[in-house]
Design a protein that fits this description.
Ribosomal Protein L15, Chain: K, domain 2; 24% helix; three-stranded parallel sheet; alpha/beta
């Protein structure tokens, strides 16, 4: 393949197909639509997943388990990783982890897990901590600060939605 072949293949000035201009053009009479049937009619459009009456792939493939697409995405990092990546006395929070590209994917909440050992005194700010992670951070002389996350919605007895804040006020 040569460069001039590539350029000619994606030419922005390419002329459109001229349909119904006589039998000599190969696109005369039926205009490339064949004879009769749904595909020959004006306004015909086929669903992109339609497979000609065959059971579609999306229905053939087995579906197992449950996937909640509305659930918060939780990024996790281990205490042992914090030991390697940060110096003593530093503040570790979601903004720092994203900025230094330690966590690269999008997430709603950050959870610190307790795998590994921590000997440095760190101030760790996260939405969630495992019990072992919290113990390891405090044992090393650091501080584990819980960041408030999104306000969860709770349904009362009447079925109306109220925020957690209002729910707690009514409870008192």
């Amino acid at each position: 393949m040569n460069l001039n072949d590539v350029i000619s293949a994606c030419d922005p000035k390419k002329a459109r197909k001229r349909l119904g201009r006589g039998t000599g053009s190969k696109l005369g009479k039926t205009c490339g639509r064949g004879h009769k049937g749904q595909g020959s009619r004006a306004g015909f459009s086929m669903h992109p997943l339609f497979e000609g009456g065959q059971l579609p792939l999306a229905r053939r493939v087995p579906k197992r388990g449950f996937n909640n697409r509305f659930a918060d995405k939780i990024a996790t990092i281990n205490v042992g990783d914090l030991e390697l990546l940060f110096d003593a006395g530093e503040v570790v929070n979601p903004a720092v982890l994203v900025e230094s590209q330690i966590i690269k994917e999008n997430f709603d909440q950050l959870k610190i897990l307790g795998y590994g050992e921590l000997t440095k005194k760190l101030t760790v700010e996260a939405h969630r901590f495992s019990q072992s992670a919290q113990k390891a951070i405090v044992k090393a002389g650091g501080e584990a600060i819980v960041i408030p996350g999104k306000k969860k919605l709770v349904r009362n007895k009447m079925g109306t939605r109220v925020t957690r804040k209002n729910y707690d006020k009514k409870k008192k």
